[in-house]
Amino acid sequence: MTPATLGQRPDPIHIYFALLPHSLLLDWAGPAEALRIANQTLRALGQPERFVLHFVSPTPQSVTSVGVMLTGLAPLPDTATLPRPSWVVLVGLPGQRIDVISNPDALALLHWLRGLRLATGRLELVTVCAGAVLAAHAGLLTGRRATTHHQHLDELAEVDPQCDVAANRVFVADGPVHTSAGVTTGIDLLLHRISDTCGPAVAAQVAQTMVVALRRGPNDPELSPFLHHRNHMHAALHRVQDAVGREPQADWNVPAMAGVAHTSPRHLTRLFL
């Protein structure tokens, strides 16, 4: 039985967003907002806040991926004295590969990460996008199942061949390690973690406040099946799909769609096949 079920005040969870220069803004701002709104929701319910947010970095100020400067970043804390429970959040960087060899700040972060002693319920790791690649460079994904952004899957497997890389998954949980695919999937992962920590009703309220139309789970694909039908370059088909999307109630027979596409019905049929 948990302290919460016994009526005791649950321990706050300390969340450390470890940010390098040029960190992808949405990778960490979206999850941070989810946690902030979770605290707001808990307060409205008369319950104590659960999440204490920290923003740490090897450097006291840093530029984000969109050029906005962050100042007042706290130094990387002593891993031996991190409060329990804590989560460390790693996020992605721009580019096709994550350069750590020629990046002194990245090397400092990796040194710090190697001092983490992960344990479920005590010290856990959360990664968004290519943050998983940073974790792999630090040896934190060895022997674990993990995912990352689809453009970094091969890189993740190359950095740590002993990591079981899961392709086309929104997020993956393996013990104290929670990895997500990329960008907005960090919000999906944090909603899942909020549900585990605070209950599904709180997570649902957070999702509603954030206007998250469709919460995705660990078994959902990273690349949306709702967009597969637009995975082509033909302008005539796009015109038809746009028209049907605007007026789905209309009587869309082949001649009507051909008129929108500016093609013959026969040619339109061939394009769809």
SSE topology sketch:
Elements: E1 13-18, H1 25-44, E2 51-57, E3 62-63, E4 69-70, E5 74-75, E6 86-90, H2 104-113, E7 123-127, H3 131-137, E8 145-146, H4 153-159, E9 164-165, E10 171-174, E11 177-180, H5 185-198, H6 200-209, H7 235-246, H8 254-261, H9 265-272
Parallel strand pairs: 1-2, 1-6, 2-5, 6-7, 7-11, 8-9
Antiparallel strand pairs: 3-4, 10-11
Helix pairs in contact: 1-5, 1-6, 5-6, 7-8, 8-9
Please, what is the average pLDDT? 89
Q: SS-based structural class?
A: alpha/beta
Shape: globular
Q: What kind of oligomer do you see?
A: single chain
CATH class term of the largest domain: Alpha Beta
Report the CATH superfamily of the largest domain: Class I glutamine amidotransferase (GATase) domain
Biggest sheet layout: 7 strands, mixed
Backbone CA Rg: 22 Å
Question: Which terms would index this structure?
Answer:
273 residues; alpha/beta; Rossmann fold; Arc Repressor Mutant, subunit A; seven-stranded mixed sheet; two-stranded antiparallel sheet; 11 strands
What does this structure look like?
The chain has 273 residues and is of the alpha/beta class. It folds into two domains: 13-209, 3-Layer(aba) Sandwich (Rossmann fold), CATH 3.40.50.880; 232-272, Arc Repressor Mutant, subunit A (Orthogonal Bundle), CATH 1.10.10. Helices cover 35% and strands 15% of the residues. It is built from nine helices and eleven strands. It has helices at residues 25-44, 104-113, 131-137, 153-159, 185-198, 200-209, 235-246, 254-261, 265-272; strands at 13-18, 51-57, 62-63, 69-70, 74-75, 86-90, 123-127, 145-146, 164-165, 171-174, 177-180. The protein has a seven-stranded mixed beta sheet with strand order 5-2-1-6-7-11-10. A two-stranded antiparallel sheet has the order 3-4. A two-stranded parallel sheet has the order 8-9. The longest helix has 20 residues, at 25-44. The termini are far apart. Mean pLDDT is 89; it is low at 1-6 and 222-227.
